[in-house]
Amino acid sequence: EEWIATGQHAYRPGHCTEDVYWTLALMVEEAILTDTPLHGAFMDFAKCFDGLPQGLLFKLAAEMGLSPRVLVPLQGMYDGLRRRFRLGASLGSEWTATNGILQGCPLSVFLLNALMAVWSRAVEASSPETKPWSYADDPGILAATADALQSGVDVTVEFEQLTDQKLHASKGKSFCINPAQAVAPTLRGTPLPQVEQLKCLGAELAVVPGRPAMVKAERLDSAKNRAVRARSLPLPWEPRQTVLSALVLPRALYGCSVSAVSEESLKKLRCCVVAALWKNKVRRRCPAIILTLLAPGHRLHPQQGLTYLRLKILQRMWQQRPDLHASIRRVWTLRMQGGQRAPGPLGLAFAAARSIGWVPADVGCWTDTSGANLDMRNQVAGLWQHTVREGIRRKIWQAVPTQRRNLQGVETGIDRSATCKMLSSRTSANREQRPILRRICADSVWTESLRFRIGRASTPVCPHCHAAPETLQHLWWECRAWGQQRAEHAEALAAFRADGRNWPPCLALCGVLPCGSTAPVAHIQGNALVEAAAEVVVVARGSAEAASAGVSVAVSAVSSQNEAMRDQQPYVHPHHGGHPAFHQMQEQQQYQQHQQLRRQWVQPVQQHQQLPQQPQNLQQLQQLQQMPQLQPQPQPQPVPQGLAQHVVRQSSAASQDRNFSRQASAVSIHSMSCMTTPSTSPHLPGRSFSRGILDPTTSAHSRTASGSSAVPLVAHMAPPVGGLPAPAPQAAGSRCQAMSPPFGGAPMGGHFSPGLSPYSVPMSPPHTARMAGSPPQGPVGFSAWPGANAVMQ
After folding, report:
1. CA nearest 490: which of 498, 439, 438, 465?
2. What 3-state class would DSSP assign to 716?
3. I need a labelling partner for 534 at 20 to 30 A (CA). Which of 114, 244, 509, 695 fits?
């Protein structure tokens, strides 16, 4: 720092590429607004690291004060380097290089900066109107007149010859603003082309009055492709945020403090980011809540990140670049006076501040929506950045109630610490319930009323209690089917009954606590998310207590919906066999195999029984009417979820066609395997399948211990572990009347023919069948199919 030039910004602490292109854009903006001439030239050295003379660099470093304890070993290392050319598997002979320094070595950049410091001082000495700048091997010159710019270019050509380097004539560019005489500088007799828009260290700059330069579409497309690829990562919520924040916005918003981006492109990029962050295709999610409450929006949301970036860099330049204070003051004053349209960083920062409701006041000061004065000059960087983020969030929250009725109340602000207490807890052992809580906060819970309104359901009535339309109000606070879960939070439930009508919808329906809320405080017992994953957080301002509002029912109700949606479109990573969705796909395949088996053997079974599904004449009708009818049975109890163990017994002598017996056994087993509880996904009845169901060789267990051949085929179902004991198979010689086949239709008839192994299911309470024609309730068994009429003897 003692010998480096002011315009050098590479490999220095506290300096980056922003110091180059932001300063250049500010100079252009000032020249356009003040109507003063400005000339500039950009050049580039070809193979700079490979062409630098080593002897000259070591002598220069010694003159600048580099310690011999560093310089002598460094020089000895370069003297001992031997190099070879390699072509495929062949190596050339050794040779020693007298020019060039190693790229990637931290001492190499020190030697390069020392050499470019000589160039900077030489250009400054050529004319007092020139301002050289450089970033590594990319030099540039700004000047007030064309003659001063030409003298700086001539000094650069002389520097090129003395250091045995070569300037790229094709990469050189120049510009002039408000010129008294539009003359392009020449490089070795070749004029540098003048442009209206140029790229400086990757940032697009406009150097003419009018609109700012636009970010290239290729960069935004690359950022969207990164977001799409990140969606396939098998990562949970927090690591997924980290990956997206490191890959997407830094790519898309680089240089946007001096360049403009189309609003349409930012919206498309936001959709890709939200889809990658919330990889399940959950409809009706609110991006405004996701990217302000559940995730850091300034690192994921393109619009938020753009506003945050421009205001953050403005304060950084004011605090770390005192040499720019005079230019910033002049441009700030002219911007407040409504000067000429000019591209520049201050104009973009003013637009970003107005987008969140801030109005510029004195130089470096703003007035927010509440009338408070915000002085960026005296605030520390962290506090200023927090102030900007809070202003962005408040502006977004003010627009949410106009789009989401269930989130009315967030326009005054959200108590983020209270609302997200359960999500930010690190002590819970049940992290699987956190997605449910995020869905509730993001207002993405589907109800029957909503499905009915968009035409996806035939009725809005609650499918759990059948008492009222299912709305969020009904689901969380009124549905009798979830009274047991709601009773665990009696204190919060009593508070809601006493004053719930005065709670804002965002609190009562989505669990989002607005700022300044006077809702009562209720303590959550324990930290387990299983008990509080879907609870509304009710906390007074400044309190550290989170509260239950009695809506933990979502752990039961919403999880089943979420599971069903996940099963419809499962995510399976090709190299991640242990992922839960991988097993769901296997279960779906099993279910499809069962359906295929039914279609394959249903027709042969009907033909073998030689009984039509409907009576064709009076004699068949009388036979059906003479069959005993089922008596009403008590309401069946829910069958615990689990894998049912099936034992198929078959008599070898009673069956004349062993193949058909195996086929009938498979059909019977499939019928029993469809017994599910209401919380099980209707798309995967195969969740209760056991291994080997589809294997016809299970008839190896069909023989009795005594080898008797008079026992009819009986499909015996054992309940899961902890359930009721299974009834024993019927004794040899017993006779069973036929059940209706699982594929529906009329009963299959009276007694079985001697040549056929009949199949039936002995059921004992609570697995007994219901009377034919009654609506299905509770667990689904044989009695759930139309026309079921079974009598057990």
Report:
1. 498
2. strand
3. 244
For residues 268 and 368, membership in a common domain is answered with: yes
| Res. 5: pLDDT tops 90 | no
* Closest C-alpha to 368, from 355, 379, 378, 349: 355
Residue 111 lies in a domain: yes
Task: Retrieve residue 364's tokens.
Answer: 């470096």
pLDDT at 418: 86
Q: Which residue has the higher pLDDT, 598 or 132?
A: 132
Q: Which two tokens stand for residue 545?
A: 């207590």
Say whether both 156 and 252 belong to one domain: no
Q: Name the pairing type of β-strands 186-187 and 373-375.
A: unpaired
Domain boundary among 536, 567, 598: 567
- Note whether 733 and 754 are within 8 A (CB): no
Give the pair of three-digit tokens for residue 634. Answer: 């008590």
Q: Across the chain, what does the average pLDDT equal?
A: 72
Confidence check: pLDDT of 584 > 80: no
What pTM was estimated for this model as a whole?
A: 0.66
Domain total in the chain: 4
Identify whether residues 551 and 444 lie together within a single domain: yes
> Which pair of structure tokens corresponds to residue 145?
């007149």
Looking at residue 619, its pLDDT comes to 60
Beta strands in 659-761 (DSSP E): 714-718
* Cα atoms in the Cβ-side hemisphere of radius 13 Å centred on 330: 14
Q: Do the beta carbons of residue 324 and residue 317 sit within 8 Å?
A: yes
Contacts of 162 (CB under 8 A, 6+ apart): none
The string of pLDDT tens digits covering residues 469-483 is: 999 999 988 898 988
Q: Do 348 and 425 belong together in one domain?
A: no
Residue 396 scores a pLDDT above 80: yes
Sheet holding 365-367, edge to edge: 359-360, 365-367, 373-375
